[in-house]
Amino acid sequence: MRIIRYDDAGTVRWGVLDQDGTARAADGDPYTGLVPGEPLGANVRLRAPVTPSKIICVGRNYADHAAEFGNPVPKEPLIFLKPPSSIVGPGDEVVYPSLSGRLDPEAELVVVIGRSGRRVAAEDAMSLVFGYTIGNDVTARDIQKSDPQWTRGKGFDTFCPLGPWVDTEFDPSDVRVTCTVGGEVRQDGRTKDFIFGIPELIAYVSAFSTLEPGDVIMTGTPPGVRPVQPGDTMTVAVEGLGELSNTVVAEGA
Question: Which of 83, 76, 85, 84 is nearest to 58 (CA)?
Fold first, then answer.
């Protein structure tokens, strides 16, 4: 099943996508059960398909990405958070803040949690997974490098595009993850090259923080990171899952 959130005359509601791509309204919520209803119109505006209490991010989970910035490969998962206020959906604009001189997209597969869990063993971790979506860990690289913590460089409003849907039957074990800008493929990797796999990440995070339904884990970005400018459109794609596109605009534009 593919779960969506959509704008209904200013109210954001849950919905589902049929196998033929038809969008339908749905009653209930994804984590206790959705009941599909009537088909929606052709011009449905999709929103971010999750409402997490926290966005857990994993740094340097591809060895080649660590190397391209001259960083060592971590010996355990490198965890940071983005605020929920940074979330935008498919097609929304990403604002290039005036405080920064370099903005980088980071293509990522995103795990969506479906039930609460604390101190979950790796062998049981996949039971917490509801599904998967696509994310872009937008980063003000100069600010990230200047600050001892990454909160500001990673946490600006609009710095977490997510979508376009959550796929509950997706197999993430070996799929291609790319970021394309202006028709040029920049980032290109495969999830089989994760340093830390999804069960290990869930176990590591749940050892210190309770995971709740709707929380997301951004699993890290592949190599090829390069900056973007206002006017650029960033398209993050995960093989078999879909695409997420957002255009960069200058602050105040």
Answer: 76
Q: Which domains does the chain have, with CATH numbers?
A: 2-46 (no CATH), 48-250 (3.90.850.10)
Listed residue (43, 39, 51, 42) closest to 15, CA to CA: 39
Enter the tokens of residue 177: 């993850």
Nearest-angstrom CA–CA distance, 202 and 13: 28
pLDDT (tens digit, 9 = 90+) per residue, 153-200? 999 999 999 999 999 999 999 999 999 999 999 999 999 999 999 999
Cα separation of the two ends of the chain: 38
Q: Are 194 and 219 in contact (CB under 8 A)?
A: yes
Return the structure tokens found at 146. 């200047």
Rounded (to 5) percent helix, strand, coil in the chain: 15, 45, 40
Is 51 within 8 Å of 214 (Cβ atoms)?
A: yes
Residue 240 near residue 86, CB atoms below 8 Å: no
Q: For 54-81, how does the pLDDT look when each residue is reduced to its tens digit (9 = 90+)?
A: 999 999 999 999 999 999 999 999 999 9
Q: Which residues pair with 113 in a beta bridge?
A: 129
Report pLDDT digits (tens) over 216-246: 999 999 999 999 999 999 999 999 999 999 9
- Nearest-angstrom CA–CA distance, 4 and 244: 13
As to burial, measured by CB atoms within 10 angstroms (0-12 exposed, 13-18 middle, 19+ buried), residue 209 is: middle
Task: State the pairing for strand pair 233-238/242-250.
Answer: antiparallel
